[in-house]
Amino acid sequence: MKKFAYQFLFALVVFNYILLTACSSEENPREVTDFNLDWKFSLGDFPEASEIGFDDAGWRGLELPHDWSIEGSFSEDHPTTPQGGALPAGKGWYRKAFSVPENYEQKEVWIEFDGVYRNSEVWINGHYLGKRPNGYIGFKYDLSPYLVYGDSQNLIAVKVDNEAQPNSRWYTGSGIYRNVRLVATGKLHVDHWGTFVTTPEIDDRQAMVSLAVQLKNSSKEEGEFSLVSRILDKDHKEVAKHESTGNLKAGQNEKIEHSFQIENIKLWKVEDPYLYEVISEVYQNGQKVDVYSTPLGIRYFEFDAQKGFSLNGVSMKIQGVCMHHDLGALGAAVNTRAIQRQLEILKEMGVNAIRTAHNPPAPEVLRLCDQMGFIVQDEAFDAWKKRKAKEDYHKDWDEWYQRDLEDLIKRDRNHPSIMMWSIGNEIREQFDSTGLVITKELADIVKALDTTRPVTAALTENEPEKNFIYQSGALDLLGFNYKHEAYADFSKTFPGEAIIASENMSALATRGFYQMPSDSTMRWPEAHDIPLETGNDAYAVSAYDHVSAYWGSTHEETWKTIKALDYMAGLFVWTGFDYLGEPIPYPYPARSSYFGIVDLAGFPKDAYYMYQSEWTKDPVLHIFPHWNWKEGELVDVWAYYNQADEVELFLNGKSVGVQKKQGDDLHVMWRIPFEKGTFKAVSKKDGEVVLEKEIHTAGAAHQIEAIADRTEIDADGKDLSFIKIKVLDEQGNLVPDAANLINFEISGPGKIVGVDNGYQASLESFKSPFRKAFNGMCLVIVQSERAKGTVTLLARSEGLEEDKVSIRVK
Ligand code: GAL
């Protein structure tokens, strides 16, 4: 039996964002400045734009993070192809003039980019700083040798080249789409990504914490220092401290190790993600010269070949979803609130784990997973040396794989949420002997930087002798994508191996569209006979859980399998949300995926409630479809429920029968002739009513309802309110096929930054102040400006009563 136990704890290099805005140098000598404001941008290539004297007066002013692809119009002819979202890519340049205080001359100053898609090249005051092909990894450049100080202006220029296409199997976005910071520290300082915290021992009450700090002396003189490390609990109370002194030569970079004992520990759990913080203070001649914060969560976990996964000694299934990085209408441009909203919606469904398919995520994703209690599989690559798309990362592989993988581990290894490193998704090298060497090499790179988490890969070849990544013996945890029928034999096929289903389902659905009969399963492409051009239903896929890609399954099929097999650590559903690109099963104008449990606008599809009924302890009763059909037509009514023995369905007050889940059933169904009116479901336990749900036949569209997810947002120019728009009849019922064009008017300190309706084949712009409803709903996203006040969003449509919401910006 191969058993992989990880009894460690981790902390976080993180997070500059705690310090996102410049801190007063009194308090903290490390100044971290949000560097997203006041950039100039132009599409196209301008080789002279790297020079200080270049005239960018005609360029557009903007604020980062910025994704220019999402601003474009859809076309089948864009080189990105519909697979990449059918949006434009190309080249673009960014420039920013800035000054730095005189005292920065005594400091070490660098710029940090969290990710630029892709092939970024950076210049400061005309000096070339370097190139980074990988669009998902963070990087920094030292600026000190080239800066001018005081009133003089510095000029940073960034070229982004996303022209060679297709370079991805999904939508990537283009530009400086993640955050940028300017960091200034004392010459003697904690290096970039310079801490690593582990917990070599944890028992019920106490933990040993081990901290490694990489201290760097970038001055020209030898320096004595003292390093003080403190561990603070959630209430900022010091719970442990360690101090040491030493000496660093000019240019020296040295690892200093501290260890601590913490009593009465609070563990990091999915339900209660308790976070400590490690503060490292550097002193020179009695003066504080740097302060660095490393969040920390104490937990231990194990992937076991017989018992599956456990966290802090408690067995649990990993109930995960795969997520690509786009944020729907906002494109790839990082926004913390938009990521948080996605995670909130998933948490409410019962998701406890995220796989960052198939690339390093934004740091904000990991910070939120730490705070909200998600387990993370952090993934490095979708391709190695062998390509998947003509212009993808295989071209950069030889030169960059080592650096990119090392940087991923250094950047992320302090996140308590991360419990698996994936070195690749469905990598071609699994099929031939080249996989042996590369797998070993990549696993060694990871282990040299972190031995506390398993190295895994998402494999597809499940014949052991034909899978060379498996044959390398270098994986600690086997990940398998799809092939759920084979899982029951895996304990024999892969004896002694810990196994997770790294990607599953690829079930397909469009919110609010239903095709009968619902009990016949359709596998694309063999059986998928949905007409392409039927008005509102064109390019839609039925949302009963009965359509999937041929390599996958319905949601229920795989979940039943995983649920029944103790040795399977859990699964990651493909995908949590719909994402831009990969619009299987349809051709253009389909341009976003159908795989999500939640649509692109963030509205749950019905399968969401199947998971909720299985994965949460809250009582659930969800019934569908809508109740607008032709008189007499046979309609399949489904119910997902839990915490009840049975569900009774009533049509216009008359019972049409009681249904109970049998065996491993995950839903119940009635097939009844449609009759206009109300159908009502009642779930009961021991004869007592648990929940009741009603759906009414809707009349003509009459009014708009606008519902904001938050009516108070911060005046920071970043925060968002997501406003759901519903088209209702006079009685307040959702009109299930409403497609009214809704116009938005906004006043006050806010702006509309995106609109969507979740329809996978809509060619409307994500950036207009209007949107057609799709199956009764659409979404408008409002962002605060940097001013307090009240934003009013008015939603109107011809022939409908309008509605408005007010949002306090504070
Ligand atoms: C998988 C792949 C994913 C996505 C999915 C669609 O094979 O890993 O990236 O393409 O198929 O079903």
TrEMBL record:
Q: Where do the Glycoside hydrolase family 2 catalytic domain residues begin and end?
A: 307-519
Domain Glycosyl hydrolases family 2 sugar binding as annotated: residue spans: 89-184
Report the residue ranges that make up the Glycoside hydrolase family 2 immunoglobulin-like beta-sandwich domain in this protein.
196-299
InterPro entries tied to this protein = Beta-gal/glucu_dom_sf, DUF4982, Galactose-bd-like_sf, GalB-like, GH, GH2_Domain-Containing, Glyco_hydro2_dom5, Glyco_hydro_2
Family annotation (Gene3D superfamilies): Galactose-binding domain-like (2.60.120.260), Glycosidases (3.20.20.80), Immunoglobulins (2.60.40.10)
Query: What keywords appear on the UniProt entry?
Result: Glycosidase, Hydrolase, Signal
Say which domain of life the source belongs to: Bacteria
Q: Which residues form the signal peptide?
A: 1-22
Record domain DUF4982: where: 632-690
Q: What is the official name of this protein in its record?
A: Beta-galactosidase GalB
Q: Which organism is it from?
A: Belliella marina
Gene assigned in the entry:
galB
